[in-house]
Task: structure prediction
Amino acid sequence: MPVNLPLITLAQEHNEKIAIATNEGAFTYRDLLHTSSQIATHLLKNTADLQEQRVAFLIPPGFEYVATQWGIWRAGGIAVPLCISHPKPELDYVITNSGASIIVAHPNYEQILRAIATEKNLRFILTSDTLPNSVNPLPDVDITRRALILYTSGTTGKPKGVVTTHQNIQAQVTSLIAAWEWTASDRILHILPLHHIHGIINVLTCALWAGAECHMLSKFDAEVVWNRISQGDFTLFMAVPTIYVKLIAAWENATKERQKSMTAGCEKMRLMVSGSAALPVQVLEKWRSISSHFLLERYGMTEIGMALSNSLHAQRYSGYVGQPLPQVEVRLVDESGELVPPGTPGEIQVKGPTVFLEYWQNPQATAKAFQNGWFCTGDLAVVENGNYRILGRISVDIIKTGGYKVSALEIEEVLRTHPDIQECAVVGVTDPEWGERVCAALVLQPQRQLTLESFRIWAKEQLAVYKIPTRILTVAELPRNAMGKVTKPSVIELFR
Result:
């Protein structure tokens, strides 16, 4: 008998249970095991083991996506999920950088990906191809092998390929299963992108590891999500702040009767989580009034999985991301690498089995990312009353102005309380006099206007004078990436 990956062994215990449910129907763990073994056989094509060959795949959320990901792993390959909203140059970059030898595509993406496969002389497989009837023996895949390459959002230069092993994934998943008490009776609605750790690990892999049901939507639609939540049969929901904002808007536009059923559906859940970007306090409060859930905020990165989380049962605090998760060590250090006392800001550094193996074929970047075995996140935080509060990226969210260091996230939180401001992004723009000038891009409430003068008069009541933006710009919407994170370099460009 081949030695199976733990994920596969666990799935065998849940054979007849529903694993994945989509608009096309429901698929059991047995279906997933069978189809993924057929895909693995097809990928192997008479070889015994893919030996960590990279397989890039572009498939919409659904059963075929999961079966392909598992098939790549079971064949001994490294899965390289592509983003469905990326244009050709970005897909080309990931395929080239990862050195993929095989591309698997859904027919929707055949045109764009077949062209790349032909140019680069790569093997090309469509998900509509006929799969082999008989399944060949599959290789033994050790958990120390590389499993996944996810690309960073590239906010600080070209995207880097983050390599995690099966062992890293196991640590990331079991840490969250312990902290958030996943069980086989859980049912989760999956609406997050599947080229990102939030969607792949926190939702999909945790659900399947626990033997739970994962209900997948092909794309996010606020009305569809509310219809599903209103049915009242989900136990968990995870999303990013922009999704909660869209769900709040849809709730506000609904009839009183429909609002009641929406709220009732939320109340039947045991946990609702927000992550991938800072959750504005006003969104947290509004969601709480709608759903009666105090959203659980957590902190993580592609390189480390999840590191910090508010408690499942104890009190949660808005603006805080809680404490270290099981199996994760966290510390805060100053610029010279010395530990900082509680109440003093420091860089978050993380250690443990959840931390990634390397940046793909980039030993310099890998070496630079670690300090004495600790991964340097580049994020600044402070511990207050035992809980971590994120102050932002050291590079873009910490603005050095006139000798002061100020947190862009802290200023944004204050600006969102202004009656005319709907959303905002605060950045430091290079300035010969101040070093960096505090600037704010603002999305105003409908039919509102704001002058710099009236804005600054209001801000003086709320903020130290050196934290007040000296330039403001009104925009229709803020530039964001696929996960809904505001891309600060693009905001800085608006002021240039």
In short: The mean pLDDT is 95. The two ends are 63 Å apart (CA to CA). The chain has 15 helices and 26 strands.
